[in-house]
Amino acid sequence: MTDTSRRGFLFAGSIAGAGLLAAACTSNTEEGGGTGGQNVSTGGDNDKPGKQVTIGFSAPAADHGWIAAIAKNAEAQAKQYSDVKLQAVQPTNDINQQISAVESLIAAKVNALVILPNDGEQLNQVARKAMDAGIPVVNLDRVFPDKLSYRTWIGGDNYGMGVAAGHYIGGRLKEKGVSNPVIVEIQGIATLPLTQERSKGFADALRTYGFRVTAQQDAKFTVESGNQVAGNLLQAHKKIDAIWNHDDDQGVGVLAAIKQAGRNEFFMVGGAGSANAMREIKAGGVLEATVTYSPTMASSAIKIARLIAQGKGMADLVEKQVPQSITLASETITRQNVDQYLPLGFES
Fold first, then answer.
1. Are 206 and 169 contacting, i.e. CB atoms less than 8 angstroms apart?
2. Dihedral angle at the C-alpha atoms of 51, 308, 298, 16, nearest 10 degrees?
3. pLDDT tens-digit profile of 218-242?
């Protein structure tokens, strides 16, 4: 990855999650019975110091803006708590090295684990090993296929990302009166379930407008591949009406290829919500929108791991335990609302 894809990251991890799940976590002792036998949550403040806990953290190497922001968010959130020690292992893109790193955290008997696996299927067994050892695992983003391998999963809505992009593109093309449009889709890593979910959501949403994807190719989440793939697609299609690029990091390369080709007859939608993509949207040009997949989920994962390790529940829920899964919303960022989202962006 070149330096163009790894510029500095926004203030300590996008303001430590901006309280996605934060603002009001409450201890179980503050939940009470309501009238008529109904249970209610009366609020509280689980951010106050509690039992000291050590949270292990493992993620891929930070050679990608979104992944780097994940690590920054986790670190920044952990620093907010005097009762949390974050034990982060060396990030790596090597599956075996990540397995070994997680095993070292299990041997250290941490109180909870937050794991963003390089590949959920290949890390599934070691996550199950942690759970079997009594260490609750918060599975971040790329899901383990075995639900017994994690206590709670938190991540973005990949299908929802595709749906949001599809509706934006479908709606804009209908507004413009375009029939039989040429729609190009640039994926991330095609073999990942998250990519397949994004593509399915995109196709399903386009279908409601009577449209379909004309050409689809994966760019592996890198600037270089984004540039190469976009260049090839631009050469193959002399006229394009819309492009959906799954990932704003690889979008740096995609936009560079578009600029180099001197093409502007189409509009483009990005994915994830990087700060540089938002600045492009604000400036005007082919990039009209991006759909969110915020790395602030790492901040929330640390908060969740802390609550689980301390035996606490969540604020605005009546239930006494943290939920088994939490899916974040995918939101569409355009010139109309970009200023609201820019402070939460990460640098690609």
1. yes
2. -40
3. 999 999 999 999 999 999 999 999 9
Are 192 and 219 in contact by the 8 Å Cβ rule? The answer is: no
Side chain identity at 31, as an amino acid letter?
E
- Integer Cα distance of 63 and 222 in angstroms: 9
The pLDDT of 312-335, averaged and rounded, is 93
Residue 44's pLDDT is 60
Q: 16 vs 162, which has greater pLDDT?
A: 162
pLDDT in tens, 161-177: 999 999 999 999 999 99
Pairing of strands 31-33, 39-41: antiparallel
- The total of other beta-carbon atoms located within 10 Å of residue 123's CB is 22
Rounded distance between C-alpha atoms, residue 1 and residue 225, angstroms: 10
Q: ∠88-327-183 over CA atoms, to 5°?
A: 105
Continuous H helices in the chain: 11-16, 65-78, 95-107, 120-132, 158-175, 193-207, 223-236, 248-261, 275-283, 297-309, 338-341
Go through the domains of the chain in sequence order and give each one's CATH number: 21-154+296-327 (3.40.50.2300), 158-292 (3.40.50.2300)
User: Mind listing the pLDDT tens digit for each residue in 75-84?
Assistant: 999 999 999 9
Six-digit token string for 220: 């592996």
| Cα 265 to Cα 256, 261, 286, 337, distances in angstroms | 16, 11, 8, 24
CA dihedral 42, 43, 44, 46 (to 10 degrees): 130
For 30-43, letters b (16+ CB in 10 Å) and e give ebeeeeeeeeebee
**pTM more than 0.85:** no
Residue 33 in this model has a pLDDT that exceeds 50: no
| Dihedral sign (CA 330, 124, 16, 342) | negative
* Rounded Cα gap, residues 248 and 223, in angstroms: 9
| CB contact at 8 A, 266 and 241 | yes
pLDDT at 316: 81
State the pairing for strand pair 152-155/325-327.
parallel
The dihedrals phi and psi of 78, each to the nearest 5 degrees, come to -60, -35
